[in-house]
């Protein structure tokens, strides 16, 4: 975030994470829905550290900003938890300036964490076990997110995957599988449990072409003056 420059930045959802902490834009907002807003206000009031973000309550699919007015939008698991991810992403495209950036963080369903979550949901239907991750929301695969971004005119700039260890609770077992983080980044990078995508809004330029039947005016020929030329008026009879 420190390399993204501009004047206005906004984070949608997840007040526990300050995704704009490293950013240096002068105007930064944290947008929360009505369910998250009271808890975030209480947390900000009880905290001794003054936050540089301005908190506002709104619907992520109807942001209170004019078109092409925001330079950076951060979505930490926002699309997964929103009831209409398409509408939220379209609203992000509307408020972003040309060459503005959107950063999307999410959990990868094609990972060990995603497999455990699907297995836990199946067992819960049978009355066995509990979920490892929260039940709210739906994982969005990277390939699916990339197609959505391309349809809205975004160009994917960077993609980072991480967390290759299995979904384990015991710290001792996590330490045993730490080697998978090093090997996964090299041998199976797209199967990380988490991903972070940075995309740039591209606006194609247009140029008005003249009609082909309209002939361009031809330049008028200017008289040419020849120097040092005298007219011979004398002649022999």
TrEMBL record:
Domain spans labelled Methyltransferase type: 33-104
Transmembrane segments: none
GO BP terms, alphabetized: methylation
Superkingdom of origin organism: Bacteria
Keywords on record: Methyltransferase, Transferase
InterPro entries: Methyltransf_11, SAM-dependent_MTases_sf
Keyword Methyltransferase in record: yes
SUPFAM superfamilies: S-adenosyl-L-methionine-dependent methyltransferases
Gene Ontology molecular function terms on file: S-adenosylmethionine-dependent methyltransferase activity
Keyword flag Cell wall biogenesis/degradation: no
Coiled-coil positions: none
Listed name of the protein: Methyltransferase family protein
Organism: Tibeticola sediminis
């Amino acid at each position: 975030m420190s390399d993204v420059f501009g004047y206005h930045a906004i984070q949608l959802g997840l007040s526990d994470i300050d995704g704009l902490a490293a950013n240096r834009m002068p105007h930064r907002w944290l947008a929360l829905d009505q369910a998250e807003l009271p808890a975030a206000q209480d947390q900000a009031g009880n905290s001794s550290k003054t936050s540089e973000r301005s908190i506002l309550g709104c619907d992520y699919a109807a942001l209170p900003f004019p078109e092409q007015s925001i330079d950076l939008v951060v979505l930490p698991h926002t699309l997964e938890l929103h009831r209409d991810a398409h509408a939220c992403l379209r609203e992000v495209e509307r408020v972003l300036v040309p060459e503005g950036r959107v950063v999307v963080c999410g959990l990868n369903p094609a990972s060990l964490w995603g497999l455990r979550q699907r297995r836990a949901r199946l067992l819960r239907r049978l009355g066995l076990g509990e979920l490892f991750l929260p039940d709210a929301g739906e994982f969005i695969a990277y390939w699916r997110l990339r197609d959505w971004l391309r349809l809205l005119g975004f160009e994917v700039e960077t993609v980072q995957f991480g967390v290759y260890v299995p979904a384990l609770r015991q710290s001792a077992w996590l330490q045993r599988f730490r080697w998978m983080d090093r090997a996964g980044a090299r041998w199976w990078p797209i199967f990380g449990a988490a991903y972070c995508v940075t995309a740039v809004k591209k606006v194609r330029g247009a140029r008005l072409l003249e009609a082909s039947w309209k002939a361009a005016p031809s330049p008028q020929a200017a008289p040419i003056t020849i120097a040092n030329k005298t007219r011979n008026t004398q002649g022999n009879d």
